[in-house]
Amino acid sequence: MSDQSASNGRISHGSLMVADPRTKKRNASEARFRAYGIIAISIGVLFLASLAFSILRSGLPAFTQYVAELEVTLSQEDYDAAESKMLKTAAYTDIFIQNFSDALDERGVEVAYDSDAIERILGKVGGDIRGHYRENLDDIGRPVTFQLQTSSRVEGYFKGRVDRESLVDSRFLVKTDLDIIDALTEADILTSRFNWAFIKGTDAGVDNPGGAGIGAAAIGSFFMMLVVLLLSLPIGVAASIYLEEFAPQNKFTDIVEVNISNLAAVPSIVFGILGLSVFIQFMHMPQSAPLVGGLVLTLMTLPTIIISTRASLKAVPPSIRDAALGIGASKMQSVFHHVLPLAMPGILTGTIIGLAQALGESAPLLLIGMVGFVAREFPDGVVSGFLDPNSAMPAQIYTWAARADAGFYEKAWGGIIVLLAFLLTMNIIAIILRRRFERRW
Amino acid sequence: MSFVKLSASALAISAMSVTAAAARDNVQVAGSSTVLPYASIVAEAFGDNFDFPTPVVESGGSSAGLKRFCEGVGENTIDIANSSRPIRDSDIALCLENGVTDIIEVKIGYDGIVFASQIDGPAFTTFEPTDIFNALGANVLVDGEVIANPHTQWADFNAELPAVDINAFIPGTKHGTREVFEEKVLLVGCEETGAFDAMVAGGMSEDDAESACLAVRGNGITVDIDGDYTETLARIEANPNGVGVFGLAFYENNTDSLKVATMGGVVPKTETIASGDYPVSRPLYFFVKKAHIGVIPGVKEFAQFFISNEVAGPDGPLAQYGLVSDPELAATQASVAAEETLAVK
Questions:
Q1: Residue A237: CB atoms within 10 Å
Q2: Interior CA angle at B89 toward B86 and B92, to 5°?
Q3: What's the pTM?
Q4: Which residues of A touch B316 (CB under 8 A)?
């Protein structure tokens, strides 16, 4: 600061209108710094934009489904015959294909086909048909309109993954099938629609990507988040209030504090190993259960919540505590009546961010049996929601990405979009809560 | 404070229900990632066709699956382990130690292991086991001497192969596929090139020579893939000169991005594998814990459904996906029906 003298020892009094070299240099360095900042931000935005673009481009097709719409009349004999078989769903598929051939003749679709070709074009429809008739026994003998998904390769043809030139004949699809598909599309039998099954459905076998949905996994995630919320919020808030407001400053509390910060930095897979050995092998809790997943994620989320809660408790001005104590409130009254309500927005924000982190976590779930072909059924009720095997959204995405069929790859990207929608919603709620309840002094 | 009360009671309820609902009603399966696709097809069909809940099928590799299988008997251990290799004596010993005495072995069919590369990449269309060994083996025979592998390009030892750098993606050691790759390709190539005999002549015992044959170069020339075939596919797509090891079913699902190489002049497909002409194939298994039959609902039914003609037969959904069905399926069906267990040594 005292470095006002120029090199020749004479004190320089530059004009305010004309910038001297030193000022110019300082201004230039500021301009450079701003430029660096803008460059950094634009690189970040560029990455974000390209990420969002590639996610949307790869994932949006997962929300469109190509279906064959057809009226089927199932007779009682057909039903009995199919139900007596071992592989009942295959019997229903055969019945449907028979009906389909008849319908094609009726509508006068002029293209050569055989039942094998129709089997290749339609996906695994037997399960859907059987499911419908098992639930609606009255529909037997009545015409029912089904909208049944097409096979993965056919969807690939509509979505541009498969094209006529590069198609190699295989048992999955042959070139002449494409003519049948074009004819069916012209006759309005094959149509596209929004893929509700993807949002509401369950996982499907590896040969049936069209039938796979993320619904069951989303329910699994929901139950896990419920466990995390119910456990980590009370435990975390109680721990931080004690540490921040009541605990004496000694070696013991120092160690606790340091270790909480350490825990926040522990890789999540470690919590998975802990969960496997403690909850499953020692406490004999069920495998693949959202309850166990929730407990593991609670361990992971606790440090985040404790740290953010302590920060927001610290941010409440001491004058509030002093005033409360000064007019005769007990320590506990001052904390619960005055400090805690003021710290609430910060606590809620920290909790939601911790939950969002837990929602996106897949590594610890790998070890407690939630990755694989798991999310196949919706839970019957609350208890089964916690205890029946289920997966979670990130684990489901991971599973899909590892499957051979390109249809599942698309589903994985679609799953990422659903997961991001959940995360965005949670973060927006956090922002709204903070804006609403935040107070300034 | 009602929130605290609410959460406390919710906790109490869930803690109680854990103890109450300990009886598991679904079949738990884990193991080989090669068997996983087939197991998931069967599990879905099982859930669709029976009144049992859909079995849970996890991945993780054959060895990891058998390890979990052998953890003991009880509801929090798995019922069935998938494996792409036969069970070893060491697995059985571990099982016995933990009280898993009666194990039913079920062979579901065969899987071919293929060598494939990028569809637009160099012409890797014919391989012999000797080529693979000369390219990937750590020690190879050059001019009558066993030396550390000097080859950098495929054309260095076989002028018919493309002159591009050697780069291979092979399954990691936790996969059962690795064992088949070592036994049926590396070891065969080692013997055919004469490296095995040269090592024995050089004073190695046969066992040492065998393990020397199985050593691969590493160093970025061979890369162990511990994940699934999708990871190998991603590596191949990023590297035009790469050669990867895949299961037949995976390759058949991705013919638009991969081209396959013949082995010993035979094209890998279901027919050549079933007839035994294509040399690199292996049986796939699952192992059932007999102590769980009758305790966990649906274990035996699932095993029987898995190997029924409708499912694992030549026209079933498994063959449709790429499994080479076992000509001796009927014998397996009979042995599962009779709950025949492995002989304990």
A1: 22
A2: 90
A3: 0.83
A4: 87
Full pLDDT tens readout for chain A, 441 residues: 444 444 555 555 667 778 888 889 999 999 999 999 999 999 999 999 999 999 999 999 999 988 888 888 888 888 888 888 888 888 888 888 887 777 777 777 777 777 778 888 887 788 888 888 888 888 888 888 888 888 888 888 888 888 787 777 777 888 888 888 888 888 888 888 898 889 988 998 888 888 889 999 999 999 999 999 999 999 999 999 999 999 998 999 999 999 999 988 899 899 999 988 899 888 888 888 999 999 999 999 999 999 999 999 999 999 999 999 999 999 999 999 999 999 998 898 899 989 999 999 999 998 888 888 888 888 888 888 898 889 999 999 999 988 888 889 899 999 999 999 999 998 898 888 888 887 766
How far apart (Å, rounded) are the C-alpha atoms in residues B333 and B306? 10
* Phi, psi (deg, nearest 5) at residue B245: -100, 125
CATH architecture, range A215-437: Orthogonal Bundle (1.10)
Burial B214-248 (b: 16+ CB within 10 A, else e): bebbeeebbbebeebbbbbbebbbebebbbbbbbb
Give the contacts of A81 (CB within 8 A, at least 6 positions apart): A91
pLDDT tens for each residue of B204-244? 888 888 888 888 888 888 899 887 888 899 899 888 899 99
Residue located via tokens 């066992």: B207
Show which of residues 42-71 on chain B sit within 8 Å of chain A, judged by CB atoms: 42-45, 47-49, 53-54, 56-59, 71
Q: In which residue ranges of chain B is pLDDT below 70? A: 1-23, 344-345
ipTM: 0.80
The rounded Cα B293 to chain-centroid distance in angstroms is 25
Is B112-281 in the same CATH topology as B24-110+282-337? yes
Domain ranges of chain B: 24-110+282-337, 112-281
Tokens of A353: 């961010």
Q: Over the range B287-319, which residues count as b (16 or more CB within 10 Å of their CB) and which as e?
A: bbbbbbbeebbbbbebbebbbbebbbbbebbbb
Total number of residues shown for chain A = 441
B24-110+282-337, superfamily in CATH? Periplasmic binding protein-like II (3.40.190.10)
Q: Which residues from A are below 8 Å from B21, CB to CB?
A: 286, 383-384, 387
- The length of chain B in residues reads 345
Q: For residue A252, what are the CA distances in angstroms to A241, A247, B96, B236?
A: 16, 10, 46, 54
Distance in Å from the first CA to the final CA of chain A: 34
- Contacting residues of A for B310, CB less than 8 Å apart: 85-87, 90
User: Which of A162, A169, A206 is the mutation pick for testing B, counting most B CBs within 10 A?
Assistant: A206
Contact A217, A360 (CB under 8 A): no
| B-chain residues near A126 (CB < 8 A) | 48
**Cβ distance of A131 and B48 shorter than 8 Å:** yes
Is residue A250 within 8 A of residue A240, CB to CB? The reply is no
User: CATH for B112-281, among 3.90.226.10, 3.40.190.10, 3.40.50.150, 3.20.20.140?
Assistant: 3.40.190.10
Question: Domain spans of chain A?
Answer: 64-194, 215-437
Query: The tokens of B280 are what?
Result: 């690199």
